[in-house]
Amino acid sequence: MFFPISHTHINPFYLVVVGFVIGILGGFFGVGGSFIAGPALRLMGVDWNFAVGTDLAHIVGKSIVAARKHRSLGNVDLKLGMIMALGTIGGAEGGAQLIQALKRAGNVNSGVSWVAIVVYIGISVFMLWESHTTLKLHKGRSRTVSDAKAAASKADHSAFGSVTKKIQGIKIWPMVSLPTSGIPEISLWTILLVALIGGFFSGFLGGGAGYIRMPSLVYVLGIPTHLAVGTDLFEIVISASYGTFTHAIKGNVDILIALVMHTGAVIGAQIGVVATQYFAGPKIRLAFVPLPLIGAAIVIYTLATGHKL
Amino acid sequence: MKQDAAKSLRVFALELAIYAVFVAVYFFLVLHLLGGWLYRLEVQHRVVYALVAILLIAGQAVVLDAVTTALFRLIRRRWR
Q: What range defines the domain where residue A74 resides?
């Protein structure tokens, strides 16, 4: 089927299946799934600038559904989400401007591909190390009463905990408290910086950049994984809407592709959200590890062969 | 236990089949009826296109979520 806005021929059922897979990932991990969506669109011959913009549009729809589900499960810190949205919007604009600069220079496809490969592999390696170390630390330790209480309150452990404590200890005015996430005090600038970096990757690589923001929420800010998933999705609704708007006026959004992909994502998201209730934080993070690697492998394939499937 | 799992799987398969019919009809409506209009909008009025794009995807999200939730509830109730 021909999609006139991006000038590409794509089987709509391929888009539905991609959307379905991404929907499950979004509901389960709280990530937009752009590390799969972007490469999957590239595989069909869609230029990176369109893959990025279209994926952002698709993310808006998918995140609205998943965020609503997480909110009903009590997994959203609204205050944190609103603060982060401000930083993310600034970063997203920066990323979109860089895409435009690469588009003008004529090397958007190779430029974004290389950055995507480095980012996807880096995230996988880090999360593998962290979740493996955390699970090893708790293996063999008998389940105490406090552990049971922590599990019930959705708090979880991380091997990165000492660094997180140091970051939370940075006292640069103004300080904010996040009672929903169990953080008594943290600098507003730390939150905004995390959001700005996530937003930049969102604008540059597409999607909600949950692959950057979700680990940042857990490891840098110290948000419990279940809350990080829900809050990330809530924040993505706001920032991806802005990203869609700015990319659309730059001619980088094929909304028809986004609408078709989203039909699959609706069902996938419902399954993903329910699945989070059956897994502990470190296990969710460990299961996340191979996903960016799959995206990196697809990008390497398209970069090396220059062909679509 | 096994019976419950098999039953859940059957219900899910039925839900998917009905949803697939909805999606096929929807493809026809969106791609054939809106395609040309959206293309012209994208070429001639980018800002309007950007706003329409966000409204369309957000509207589709809310409507499809309501449809699937209602559909799932209906099927599961009838199956019991």
A: 2-138+157-305
Residue A191 lies in a domain: yes
Flag whether residue B23 sits within 8 Å of chain A, measured between CB atoms. yes
> What residue of A is the nearest CA neighbor of B45?
A249
Q: Which of A30, A9, A13, A2 is nearest to A285 (CA)?
A: A30
pLDDT along chain B (80 residues), means of 10: 66 75 77 88 95 93 84 71
Task: Tell whether the model's pLDDT for residue A152 goes beyond 50.
Answer: no
Q: What is the pLDDT of residue A244?
A: 92
With a CB cutoff of 8 Å and minimum separation 6, the contacts of A210 are A26, A29, A30, A31, A32, A33, A34, A232, A233, A236
Q: Which residue of chain B is at minimal alpha-carbon distance from A16?
A: B23
Asked whether residue A151 is domain-assigned, the answer is no
Distance, in angstroms, between A249 CA and closest chain B CA? 5
Q: Which residues contact A14 (CB under 8 A, 6 or more apart)?
A: A44
Under 8 Å CB pairs connecting chains A and B tally to 98
Q: What are the extents of the domains in chain B?
A: 2-79
Identify the bridge partners of residue A178 per DSSP, sorted by sequence position.
A183
- From residue A14, alpha-carbon distances to A18, A21, A132, A182, B53 in Å are 6, 11, 34, 42, 21
Asked if B69 and A271 touch (Cβ cutoff 8 Å), the reply is no
* C-beta atoms of B50 and A244 within 8 A: yes
- The first and second tokens of residue A5, run together, are 């806005």
